[in-house]
Specification:
CATH class of the largest domain: Mainly Alpha
Pfam families: Pkinase, TPR_BSK1_C
CATH topology of the largest domain: Transferase(Phosphotransferase), domain 1
Subunit structure: Interacts with BRI1.
Shape: elongated
Mean pLDDT: 81
Largest sheet: 2 strands, antiparallel
Helix content: 55-70%
Catalytic activity: L-seryl-[protein] + ATP = O-phospho-L-seryl-[protein] + ADP + H(+); L-threonyl-[protein] + ATP = O-phospho-L-threonyl-[protein] + ADP + H(+)
Strand order of the largest sheet: 1-2
Keywords: ATP-binding, Brassinosteroid signaling pathway, Cell membrane, Kinase, Lipoprotein, Membrane, Myristate, Nucleotide-binding, Serine/threonine-protein kinase, Transferase
Strand content: 5-15%
Distance between the termini: 56 Å
Radius of gyration: 24 Å
Organism: Arabidopsis thaliana
Low-confidence stretches: 208-214, 220-227, 259-273
Number of strands: 4
CATH superfamily of the largest domain: Transferase(Phosphotransferase) domain 1
Number of domains: 2
Number of helices: 18
């Protein structure tokens, strides 16, 4: 935080003195930049540092921060984002003061004239919108764009090539959760810290490549070119029979996760850290069974943003959901991540084949099928 140094309350003098922040406000860097726009990685850093500052306030029993916006975030002499202390003003302690444009105020303030701790999360959602879009988009308009899946409209065009489709989708889901009208449906600041920390780490590794460069898996050359028998799931992937793939993947259940994640999940459940996330998985599974693939994507994404380890089965299911939604690049990314999470899971290779066929890459798809079949034979 930008620390408060002192105050003055003598006669008519009412002053607060805070640390000097020489590198201006987030609003200046987002909306009025002169040389170059703020990079994706720095925007995630701002979001994470702001969430960390808010959680620090919570730890000290200060759970109301008023009018969180891009003018409240300042940059110190080395370029680190700092949260201004002025949002903690004493006259706002009872939640009766709110100075922002009402178009950006939390719904409960418009209904009741007061704010609550969950209102801070709503304001954080508007901050995420600003960081993603480089514009000050009213929450109601953003929610319409969320419902219409108009994700490209939400993203700042200056960020092209700086993030993966998965990271973009995950950040949009976080923002949409923060902006839910019912306060008890919004995530905690601690949850947001965890999710943003993972996104920031992935951003550090993301290559600065153009969107059209499709990632393709590489395979070791097989010892023989003889055709290998395919399992029913492999055949369904070769035919790109999405309905058949859905039926078979549903029947497979979560057997693969027994090897990879059960112990870790059990520990997290014991400590109570995973209960909310397991509910997201249950909702995702229910939507998957009901063939409501867009809803399944949303819940599976929320589950994975807070899971301690990667679930190969959830990745495989979300991959198929993306295929059903004609999001072939996102599907291929999930299929490749499934293989990384569980190298012996032949389903991952079969899913890659289906994705590659949808992308018109038949030669690569045949190799993926061959290696999947070889893996099962082994």
């Amino acid at each position: 935080m930008a620390n408060l140094i002192g105050c003055c309350s003598e006669g008519h003098e009412r002053l607060l003195v805070a640390e000097y922040m020489p590198n201006e406000t987030l609003a200046k860097h987002l909306f009025h930049w002169e040389k170059r726009p703020m990079k994706w990685e720095m925007r995630l850093r701002v979001a994470l540092h702001t969430a960390t500052a808010l959680e620090y306030c919570n730890d000290w029993g200060i759970d109301l921060y008023h009018d969180l916006n891009t003018y409240r975030i300042l940059f110190d002499k080395v370029g680190n984002p700092r949260l201004s202390c002025f949002g903690l003003m004493k006259c706002s302690r009872e939640g009766k003061s709110y100075s922002t444009n009402l178009a950006f105020a939390p719904p409960e303030y418009l209904r009741l004239g007061t704010v609550i701790p969950e209102s801070v999360t709503f304001s954080f959602g508007t901050l995420l919108l600003d960081l993603m879009s480089g514009r000050h988009i009213p929450p109601n308009h953003a929610l319409d764009l969320f419902r219409g899946k108009n994700y490209l409209v939400l993203m700042d065009s200056a960020l092209d090539g700086q993030f993966s489709d998965e990271d973009r989708t995950e950040l949009i889901h976080l923002a949409s959760r923060c902006l839910r009208p019912e306060p008890d449906e919004r995530p905690s600041i601690k949850f947001l810290m965890s999710a943003l920390s993972r996104l920031e780490k992935r951003a550090e590794l993301w290559p600065n490549v153009k969107e059209e460069n499709i990632p393709t898996p590489s395979y070791t050359e097989p010892a023989t070119k003889e055709p290998l028998p395919l399992t029913p799931f492999g055949e369904a992937c070769w035919r790109v029979d999405l309905s058949g793939m859905h039926e078979l993947l549903e029947k497979l259940g979560y057997g693969e996760d027994d090897v990879v994640v059960t112990n870790e999940f059990s520990f997290q459940m014991w400590t109570g850290q995973m209960q909310e996330n397991m509910d997201y998985k249950k909702h995702g599974d229910a939507a998957f069974r009901a063939k409501d693939f867009e809803t399944a994507i949303e819940f599976y994404t929320e589950f994975m943003s807070g899971a301690p380890v990667v679930s190969p089965t959830v990745l495989a299911r979300r991959c198929l959901c993306y295929l059903m939604s004609d999001m072939f690049r996102e599907a291929l990314s999930d299929a490749m991540q499934t293989q990384v999470a569980s190298p012996e899971f032949s389903i991952a290779l079969y899913l890659q084949a289906a994705c590659l066929l949808k992308l018109g890459m038949e030669a690569e798809a045949k190799e993926a099928l061959r290696h999947g079949s070889s893996l099962e034979a082994f």
